[in-house]
């Protein structure tokens, strides 16, 4: 067996976004209200009603993708733009038209669409009807939504992603619109939702294979390199448990078709009981993913600390604290820049699921970029991309089957936690948290760097 020496010639060089973070037009053209819209109204940063107005800049944005040389574009469809209440009898035609226009433009420009069905923006009506993912009814409604997407767009979409970062949604149930009177109840709701999301995806993997035999489908998993602070077995073990419960759980269920034993043990220890049905086991067994989408940004270092404030990942990361190590470059938002961490992480996924195709669905560097004379010198992002692409190539040479790289993000968008203060884009969008301005687009240095990289790698292979 000969190993590849470079990126494969059909490698999909892409970039990534999500609907509520770029589209805007949140209350236009028949779209229903989502959990993300409501969260945005409560925060002074996250203004989904305008976002970066991709909805009204579609042609110009795709032209920028083409000029950049993108071979793929990973974006999400807003469930509530198709079904305003999540489970309506009829589709919202204006929403269908919007995604038809986007897909047609991508196809015309030879850009492969990689489509996420659900990225943090559950239709709020489903929360009001039955508590969203905490109810088993959501499995049926997601299935119907997915079936509709396959019927409407399956002729142009070969790569489908089901749910973005399910483990985060399970651990922060408020992101799915859930409320509870205490932490215990919240964790119960979070894990029951988790179960329903697993089940819904297994059913949808199966459906995709029946309806679109040429298409491929998988989850978009939150995955970081997790390292122990101390070389003691307790720290090493704890960091492995975190890695399992935050990163691998979504991969294990999608590839192996059952809930892993470390998760069952975790539920038992947390005294959480899931409501299941006898037929579920067979659903998990038969519904498997074809590839893994990985959202990988950085390395985190943990040490045991019984006093630590568990913060947002409450249950799973209780008793640990995240440690900043200055030997790794850190951004002001606690992201580290650790390119070899990416190669290591990819090797580990390949060890666990040999030769599984991997799409890097997110990877990126946050910064408070500044526009000066029409230019943005985002040199740290250029270094981040350069070094991560180098290590990605090393991973491919190691034998890891990575088929696509989609940095986060194609253009500046509203960050989930920090609005426009924290930018990830290759394209700068001229707006800030205070004013939406005219949303004019500017190519950053990272855009020009990535453009050259795509050309050079295409030449090399
Ligand atoms: C990923 C999400 O978790 O991280 C994105 O899929 C998000 O939607 C990204 O934007 C970065 O997080 P943040 O909070 O900086 O936007």
Q: Nutshell version of this structure?
A:
This protein is of the alpha/beta class and 461 residues long. The protein has helices at residues 19-22, 35-42, 58-68, 79-82, 93-108, 124-130, 137-153, 166-171, 183-211, 233-256, 261-269, 280-286, 314-317, 339-352, 379-398, 445-460, and strands at residues 12-13, 72-76, 112-118, 159-164, 216-222, 225-228, 292-295, 299-304, 320-323, 329-330, 336-337, 358-362, 402-405, 427-429, 441-443. Strand 12, helix 15 (379-398) and strand 13 (402-405) form a beta-alpha-beta unit.
Describe the overall structure.
With 461 residues, the protein is α/β, with parallel strands linked by helices. The chain contains 16 helices and 15 strands. It has an 8-stranded parallel β-sheet with strand order 1-13-12-7-5-4-3-2. Strands 6-8-9 form a 3-stranded mixed β-sheet. It has a two-stranded antiparallel sheet with strand order 10-11. A hairpin with a 5-residue loop joins β10 and β11 (336-337). α9 (183-211) crosses α12 (280-286) and α14 packs parallel to α15 (379-398). It is globular and about 60 Å long. The two termini are 18 Å apart. Residues 309-313 have low confidence and may be disordered. Bound molecules: 6-O-phosphono-beta-D-glucopyranose. 6-O-phosphono-beta-D-glucopyranose is lined by residues 18, 21, 164-165, 222, 295, 362, 366, 408, 415-418, 422.
């Amino acid at each position: 067996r000969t190993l590849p020496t470079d990126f494969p010639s059909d490698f999909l060089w892409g970039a990534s976004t999500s609907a509520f973070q770029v589209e805007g037009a949140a209350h236009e053209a028949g779209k229903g209200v989502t959990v993300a819209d409501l969260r945005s109204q409560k925060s002074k940063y996250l203004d989904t009603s305008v976002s970066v107005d991709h909805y009204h800049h579609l042609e110009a944005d795709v032209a920028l993708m083409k000029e950049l040389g993108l071979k793929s574009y990973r974006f999400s469809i807003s469930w509530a733009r198709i079904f305003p209440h999540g489970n309506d009898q009829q589709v919202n035609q204006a929403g269908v038209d919007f995604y038809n226009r986007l897909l047609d433009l991508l196809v015309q420009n030879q850009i492969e669409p990689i489509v996420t069905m659900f990225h943090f923006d559950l239709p709020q009506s489903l929360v009001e009807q039955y508590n969203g993912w905490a109810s088993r009814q959501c499995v049926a409604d997601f299935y119907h939504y997915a079936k509709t997407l396959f019927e409407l767009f399956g002729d142009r979409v070969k790569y489908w992603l089901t749910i973005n970062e399910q483990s985060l949604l399970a651990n922060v149930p408020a992101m799915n619109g859930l409320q509870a009177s205490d932490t215990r109840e919240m964790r119960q709701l979070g894990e029951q939702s988790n179960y329903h999301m697993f089940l819904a995806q297994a059913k949808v993997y199966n459906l995709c294979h029946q309806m679109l035999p040429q298409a491929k489908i998988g989850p978009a998993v939150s995955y970081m390199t997790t390292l122990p602070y101390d070389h003691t077995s307790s720290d090493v073990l704890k960091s492995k448990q975190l890695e399992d419960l935050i990163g691998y759980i979504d991969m294990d269920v999608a590839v192996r078709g059952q809930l892993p034993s470390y998760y069952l043990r975790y539920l038992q220890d947390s005294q959480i009981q899931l409501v299941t049905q006898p037929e579920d086991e067979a659903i998990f067994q038969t519904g498997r993913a074809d590839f893994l989408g990985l959202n990988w940004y950085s390395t985190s270092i943990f040490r045991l600390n019984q006093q630590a404030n568990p913060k947002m990942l409450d249950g799973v990361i209780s008793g640990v604290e995240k440690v900043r190590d200055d030997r790794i470059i850190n951004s002001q938002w606690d992201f580290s820049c650790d390119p070899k961490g990416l190669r290591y992480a990819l090797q580990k996924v390949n060890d666990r699921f040999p030769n599984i195709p991997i799409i890097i669905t997110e990877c990126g560097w946050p910064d408070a970029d500044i526009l000066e004379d029409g230019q943005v010198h985002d040199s740290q992002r250029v270094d981040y991309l350069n070094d991560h692409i180098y290590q990605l190539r090393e991973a491919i040479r190691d034998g890891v089957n990575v088929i696509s790289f989609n940095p986060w993000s194609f253009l500046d968008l509203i960050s989930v936690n920090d609005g426009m203060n924290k930018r990830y884009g290759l394209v700068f969008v001229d707006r800030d948290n205070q004013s939406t301005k005219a949303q004019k687009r500017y190519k950053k240095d990272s855009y020009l760097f990535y453009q050259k990289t795509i050309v050079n790698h295409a030449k090399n292979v």
